[in-house]
Each structure stands twice: as structure tokens, then as C-alpha cells.
Amino acid sequence: MQETILILDFGSQYTQLIARRLRELNVYCEIHPWNKVPTINGSTRGVILSGSPFSVLETGAPLPETAAFKGKIPLLGVCYGAQMLAHRFGGEVMRSNAREYGRANLHFVSEQTELLKGVDQGSQVWMSHADTIKELPANSEIICSTTDVQFAGFRIKDEKTWGIQFHPEVYHSTQGKDILKNFVVGICGCSQNWTPDSFIETTVADLKLKIGDGKVVMGLSGGVDSSVAATLIHKAIGDRLYCIFVDNGLLRKDEFTQVLESYKDVGLNVRGIDAKERFYSALKGQSDPESKRKIIGKLFIEVFDEAAADLKDADWLGQGTIYPDVIESVSATGGPSATIKSHHNVGGLPETMKLKVVEPLRLLFKDEVRRVGAALGVPSSILERHPFPGPGLGIRILGDITPEKVRILQEADHIFTSGLKEWGLYNSVWQAGAILLPVQSVGVMGDERTYEKAVALRAVSSTDGMTADWCHLPHEFLGKISSEIINKVKGVNRVVYDISSKPPATIEWE
Predict the structure, then answer these.
(1) How far is 40 from 91, CA to CA, in rounded Å?
(2) Which of 298, 360, 286, 348 is nearest to 323 (CA)?
(3) What percentage of residues in the chain have a pLDDT greater than 90?
(4) Residue 78 and residue 167 in contact, taking contact as beta carbons nearer than 8 Å
């Protein structure tokens, strides 16, 4: 059984970063809502309690039952998790005089605790809380302090339970990764054996067991996620995988033909379906982003259902869902937190769908998918492609969708993407694309006044899509691309560049 660190999520914006840091240590972990704790078994090596926007002093604050793991396996509370442990087991938590947010330095670090082994006096940490621990639970001892926070960290004696009021998972905690390694490797005893090869071995075995003698219909997009997912499924069941690539009319320029060509030598059985007119008809007059996503997702499934009708025993639908899709589509706490947006893979599936879903990548981040793909031998031409949203250009055309708007955006996007490759910038950008804005502006071409559309260019750097920074592309490049789009794409007379990071923005505009 795969050794696992269980992360209980109380809704913190940093919870996913805890998982990222553990994965970087080659330690497998899973995030679960605090009120849906899975069964603790022999493979569970330790538990981490995340931070939270809640206060333990609030009525209705998340207070999980801890009897199944506290005192039995190693336990680490982070920020809210630490305060919850103190509050529940005899300590005292109070409101801070001022919100403790930002950089702080540890001016006292106990040399006697395994959790802080190798952590320097004065090490910088990141605070983000409005409550603070005033008194520790009985049978506890302090392990670190800052100038303003006396009980920055503590441990409960006679059991492997720790609490820290700072966030070791964020970049600003300079030795945070060392602290997490001390916990999962030194204290929990994880062997750091979760690698792409081990993931492939485990996943292929699970797929064989889950699918049995069944057949799978797999929707391909030509992107990294669906390609790696299909290769994994193919490795498990061979020619019982039937791949379908749908032209929904919202693909990049010439993508339908190019993708079908790219799979010829990969060994996958791929059938192309031209469904452009069905999608355009269903989307006619729809301008709400969520409505468009739901329509596109539902129609994808309908197309797959129809294609599967030719396969008498097909009862599985393969999807390239990855962890950020799941996280952004479902309330992480199982409570009132807002869904950022629905993804076509995980939102909008009709209740009457005839096919069961198999998603071999749903617990992987994007960079992990690429590493698994490389280990599987997926061509670099596919692995190096930028992420592309499932709904395609449907969510890069703000407002309603028409074939003419699709043509304009395809041309502009092609010029931008081709330019990135020509200038040697493509591989230094994580994701790039053009967005057609629902505005028109006055321009002048020659001696004539124009009143045409505006296009926004978007390029970001990231590792997993959870956070992203806008790319500082050369001004000369942006100027050339702007001029080329305006001169060559009929209907566009203005180009702007998006300099928003995620958060607070998202990568896509819809």
C-alpha cells in the first residue's frame, strides 16, 4: 500500500501548497475536507491540519474528531490547525491585538525537537492569523517563538503531536521545506519513494483492477493531460481503449488536423469527429461564462455517449482531470466556500450520463503530469504544449460565441503563439493565449476611421496553475505581435497585454 500523509483542509488558501511541498519531497499525500476524514489505516504515516479563514473562537468553527489519529500517529497542526489543537486540549486561544501577517523571525528555536532539526535561530517564517495561542495545553512545551508570538510552536509531550502558528509551506518561510521534511521523513518515517515510475506502476495496476475487461472511450484534446491519461489507460488495457478527438469549433487554428496527425505514431486508436455546428448551435446567444462551460461540458459527454454506441461493451469514459481542476471546482472544506469556476471535466456532467468516469490523473498537479508523461515516453512535442482550457476558445471569447468571433481569435492566437516560438520564448512561458474582448474601439487605418474589436494577450509563468505570475515579455516582441495582429486579422484594431497575477486574478478571463 502507498504510504500516505493525510492533509485535512480547513479552507486555507495555502492548503494546496502543503501538498505541493510534500510532493516535491517525493512523499505522497492527499487533501481531504476536515469533515470527511478517510479511514486511518496502516499506510497513513501522519496527519497535517491546515490553516483556515475561520477562528476557533467562532460559533460553528471546524472542530474535527481527532481520536482516530491524535496520539496514535504523528500529527502536525499548521496555524489554525495548531490553534485548534491548543483550544481543544486545554490551552487557550485569544484574539490578537493586531493581525499577525507577514514575515517574522524565530528568535528562539528549541534544539531538542525533531520538527525543527537544522532550523536556524533567526530563520524567517510567514505569519497569517488574527488569533494567537495564549496558553498551551497541559503536558506541552514551547519549541519556538518570534518577537511578537510567544508560542509560535509547541509539542505535546509523550506523543508525536506538534503545532506551529506560521506557514512552513509558503515561499517566505525560508526553511519551511526543511521543517516539512523533518515531519514527513524524520518523524513520520516516509521513505520518499513516490516517483513518476512508482505512480505509473501503482496507477496501471489500479486501472486494470477497476476497468477489468471493460472498454474505455477517451476524449483527447491534444494537450498534456488527456494525452498522458490516455497513455496510462492504454498501458493498462491496450486496444480496449478507444480515443475520440472532437472538433468543437473552439480549438486553436488548424488544431483538429494537427492533433490527429500527432497521434498517428503514438499507438493510440483515435477517431476524429467534426461537431462544430452542434456546438455553435447550442452556444448561440449564450454569454454567461458558467452557462457556456456547462453547455460545452454536457455536449462533450453527449458526443462521447453517441460515439460509444458503436462499442457494445463500452462503459467507461476516460478523462484528463488533474488536481487543480478538482480543487477549483469543489468546495475544499465541504462547507460554504465559493467555487471559483466549474471545469468541464468535473462540473456539468449530466446525471443521466451512460458512461462511468475514470480519471487516472485527478490527484496530480500539472508539472507532475509532465514528469509522468516523460517516464511513459510521451513525445516532447505533446508534453511541452501549453495548457489549454477544456472549453477551448469558448471561454476566451468574452460574451456570446459566433463562428466569425472564433475566426478572429484563432488568427490572433496563432500569431501570438507562433511568435513566442519564433522568438524562443514559448518554453519559458507556462501558458499563453489571446482573449477576444466584448468591446470595440476607435482606430485609424490609412485615412479611414475604424471601429473594431480589441484583443488581450495573456502569458503567465507557473508550476501547477494554482498560482501564476504575468510574464515580462520583451516590449519589442509585444510591439511586433500587436502590429502583426492588427495588420493581418480583419476585425481587430487594438491589442492590450494582461499584467494580472493569480491570485487575485485567474489565468483565464472566464
Answers:
(1) 26
(2) 360
(3) 57
(4) yes
Of the CA atoms within 13 Å of residue 128, those in its CB half-sphere come to: 17
Helix (H) or strand (E) holding 180: helix 176-181
Would the pLDDT of 79 be above 60?
yes
One-letter amino acid of 316: W
Residue-by-residue DSSP string for 77-145 = EETHHHHHHHHHTT-EEEEEEEEEEEEEEEEEE-TT-GGGTTPPTT-EEEEEEEEEEEEPPTTEEEEEE
169 is catalytic: yes
pLDDT of 328 > 70? The answer is no
Query: At 490, is the secondary structure helix, strand, or coil?
Result: coil
Q: CA 434 → CA 37, 246, 417, 456, distances in Å? A: 42, 22, 9, 6
Cell, residue 132? 494567537
Task: Report the C-alpha gap between 27 and 44 in whole angstroms.
Answer: 12
pLDDT of the residue at 354: 66
Look up cell 471569447; give the residue: 397
CB contact at 8 A, 320 and 345: yes
Do residues 319 and 221 lie in contact, with contact meaning Cβ atoms separated by under 8 Å?
no
Q: Given a cut of 90, is residue 45 above it in pLDDT?
A: yes
Residue 307 has pLDDT above 80, yes or no: no
Catalytic, 144? Answer no
Which of the given ranges, 7-16, 125-134, 368-377, 445-454, has the highest pLDDT on average?
368-377
Is 472 a known active-site residue? no
Selecting among 3, 29, 87, 167, the annotated active-site residue is: 167
Q: Cis bond leading into 474, ω under 30°?
A: no
Mean of the per-residue pLDDT values for the chain? Answer: 88
In the set 3, 100, 169, 255, the catalytic residue is: 169
Q: What is the DSSP letter of 444?
A: E
DSSP character at residue 386:
P
For residues 420-435, one letter each, b for 16 or more C-beta atoms within 10 angstroms of the residue's C-beta and e for the rest, the string is beeeebbeebbbbbbb
Instruction: Judge whether 262 and 382 are in contact, CB under 8 Å.
Output: yes
Burial bucket for residue 265 (CB in 10 Å: 0-12, 13-18, 19+): exposed
CA-based nearest residue to 22, from 41, 42, 1, 3: 3
Model-level pTM? 0.71
Pairing of strands 75-78, 161-164: parallel
- pLDDT per residue as tens digits for the range 247-296: 999 999 998 988 888 787 778 888 899 999 999 999 999 999 999 999 99
Beta bridge partners of 453: 440, 492
| CA–CA distance, 179 with 171 (Å, rounded to integer) | 13
Catalytic residue, chosen from 79, 144, 190, 243, is 79
Give the cell for residue 188: 513520520
Encode 314-349 in three state secondary structure: EEEEECCCCHHHHHHHCCCCCCCCCCCCCCCCCCCC
